Amino acid sequence: MTVERMNEMKEQTFTITAETGVHARPATLLVNKAGQFESEIEIGYNDKKVNLKSIMGVMSLGIPKGAQITVSADGSDEEAALAGVTEIIKEHLGE
Amino acid sequence: MPTVRTKDLLDNFNLKLIAGEEGLHREITTSDISRPGIEMTGFFQFYPSERLQLIGRTEMAYFLELDEDKRRDRVRRLFTDITPGIVITRGMDVPNEMIEAANDAGVPILQSPRKTTRVISRLTNYLEIKFAPSTAIHGVLVDVYGVGVLITGQSGVGKSETALELVKRGHRLVADDSVEIRQEDYDTLIGNSPPLIEHLLEIRGVGIINIMTLFGAGSVLSSKKISFIIHLEIWDKMKQYDRLGLDEDTLKIMDVHIPKATIPVRPGRNLAVIIEVAAMNFRLKKMGVNAAEEFSERLSEMIEQEKEDME
Questions:
Q1: Looking at the predicted complex, does its ipTM rise above 0.85?
Q2: If pLDDT is split at 50, 70 and 90, which confidence band does A9 have?
Q3: I need a surface site. Which of B63, B147, B152, B203 has the fewest CB within 10 A?
């Protein structure tokens, strides 16, 4: 039996302002942060969604400056997870 | 620092003692070697009397040109209380004045059949190794595909077990548990095993095993240059490990900085394979192929392309 949990999922949208886009180093910071939480965290760009805990996955999106991205967290610590990731994004990548 | 005496040179090189046997116990305190050419002319202001002195064909030819008074004067000032020895090269005959002075002052004269430059380089090499700064480190030194890999980490993290697995895969053990390291030149570290535990490995639950008798002469190596350090530590969830390989961490041993990678240990991780790959990747980087940097460039191009498409 699958339980529909859509309404419980936390989601937030950001715009990337960093000149290099989501390059290797900022991607590492994001992934390391996401790895500290239990929740499932995903990053979406252009219809593609990948696990934010997978570094190769995140980098494979090739997110440039000016892109709109969505970060979603689902799980027991989803609020803390989203807050943690938001902090990294605001500090290194965008708004 | 080990003590080197003139006698050690006699034992280790093809030298013949001509005179001054009394001084064989003299200590050599520096690896520098002097050729007293200028001193032969009577200029002794900067004479480094504490060094080993080497007299080659040039110095000897000049000496023989001098009149007897001058010869006596020169040898008296050359053969001092602290001069550890005089080496005469090319098997040249030693003039009587020198033999007398050597016996009076107790400075050994050693005769070598070889050419001066050859003797200088061999003696310098020998003395530099003897005087090289050295230290000992807790770890395991293994030759992996020709790369000297020093495995460090806390007791019980699995260094010896990893070394055993590497030996089984055809790599070579240099030292287990304690690695003696000496610095040669300013940028090279050479590791070897303390003589007592050479070829031995201690595996918990099995005991001490002899790698050479178990796996053959090809599985051990007496010394190896240390090129790469792999630090093993129990996986710490909160610690961030290198994910990309773009940054190079180093560890300083004596005056030398050695590239270092920290590998988290978790049950089920095959450390031997990871170390093999790390060693190969290290060689590849030395040859100019850097996968992490190439990837980073590819990513830059892709992001640039995306950006253009967006505009």
A1: no
A2: confident
A3: B203
Diameter over CA atoms, chain A: 46
Mean pLDDT of A4-21: 80
- Selected residues 31-70 of chain A with any CB under 8 Å from a CB in chain B: 31-32, 36, 55, 59, 62-67
Select the residue from A16, A28, A52, A61 to test the B interface by mutation, using most B Cβ atoms within 10 A. A28
B128 exposure class (CB count in 10 Å sphere: 0-12, 13-18, 19+): middle
CATH of B134-295, one of 3.30.360.10, 3.40.50.10240, 3.40.50.300, 1.20.1300.10: 3.40.50.300
Active site residue B118: no
- Residue A7: what pLDDT? 53
How many residues are there in chain B? 311
Residue spans of chain B under pLDDT 70? 1
Separation of first and last alpha carbons in chain A: 38
The class of domain A22-92 in CATH terms is alpha beta
Rounded mean pLDDT, A6-19:
83
Look over chain B and give the mean of its residue pLDDT values, rounded to a whole number.
92
CATH superfamily of B4-130: HprK N-terminal domain-like (3.40.1390.20)
- The whole-model pTM stands at 0.76
Q: Map residue A58 onto helix, strand or coil.
A: helix
Domain ranges of chain A: 22-92
Show the DSSP H helices in B45-95 as ranges: 57-65, 68-78
DSSP helix/strand/coil, B167: helix
